[in-house]
Amino acid sequence: MSKKDILTPIGITFGFIVIMLAILSSGGTEGAVSFIDVSSILIVIGGLIASMLIAFKMEQLKLIFKLFKATSLQNSKQLPELIALFSRLAERARREGILALENDLDGIDDPFIRKGLLLVVDGVEPEVINDILEAEIMAMEERHAKSRSLFEKAAEYAPSWGMIGTLIGLVLMLNQLSDPSTLGPSMAVALLTTLYGTVLANLVFTPMANKLEGKTEEEAFYKQIIIEGIIGVQSGQNPRILEEKLNAFLSNEDQEKQKEIQTSNIIGESINEA
């Protein structure tokens, strides 16, 4: 089960707090009020929504709330536990045969691992298994890229609508130069729309798109290790050799954790034998 990633809401909140503190430290409360302009908000938010409705299908736009949620979830998959799983599967396959792996399928929640093991049990060639699973990774990356483009396009459109608001404000200001009282509001629209669009792009949409891209890379890396493990189990590799091969994917910190898991397993086996 995925854990909450509090860094995303903390980062966004901290960014807005820093901006507000900078405004308050320079202009006080009255200065902060001058940074709120309904016309500028309508231009940026309304224009952004209009552009998104034109650029994407309704099915894609419905995903945006899931994407917001995804940026606040942390991947709970652990590589040391995955490697330990394949070590056990390899040992059982060598001891009892490939068909014995079918009994372990019910205890495996990951559908990607289950699919790979089912192909192994069905006697599919290693090259074919690799091609099937690699194709699934590519399809996953393509789906994620299409979903992530919602934030990437929003990051492009927001500053553009800010610039449109700036042009509107300048036109209004130039048309009313004879009335000095209108210069301030017109200039506010001209500058604040650019500010709103830039803040949305650089504090919300672009960081979220980058986080989703990082999550996709992590998942693809995780699945690549699964493919290596499945092929190793099918080929009848020695569990220790397979484990050492998969450990090459781990960082130093994860390797230490893997050693702890191995020690725990050895102690558990000793207790069971006793």
UniProtKB/TrEMBL annotation:
One of the Pfam families matching this protein, by short name: MotA_ExbB
InterPro entries given in the database record: Flag_MotA_CS, MotA-like, MotA_ExbB_proton_chnl
Cellular compartments annotated: Cell membrane
Parts of the chain that traverse the membrane: 7-26, 32-56, 154-174, 186-205
UniProt domain MotA/TolQ/ExbB proton channel: residue ranges: 106-220
Keywords, comma-separated and alphabetical: Cell membrane, Cell projection, Cilium, Flagellum, Membrane, Transmembrane, Transmembrane helix, Transport
Coiled-coil positions: none
Membrane association type: Multi-pass membrane protein
Keyword Transport listed: yes
Domain of life: Bacteria
Family: Belongs to the MotA family.
UniProt xrefs under NCBIfam families: PRK06926.1
Protein name per Swiss-Prot or TrEMBL: Flagellar motor protein MotP
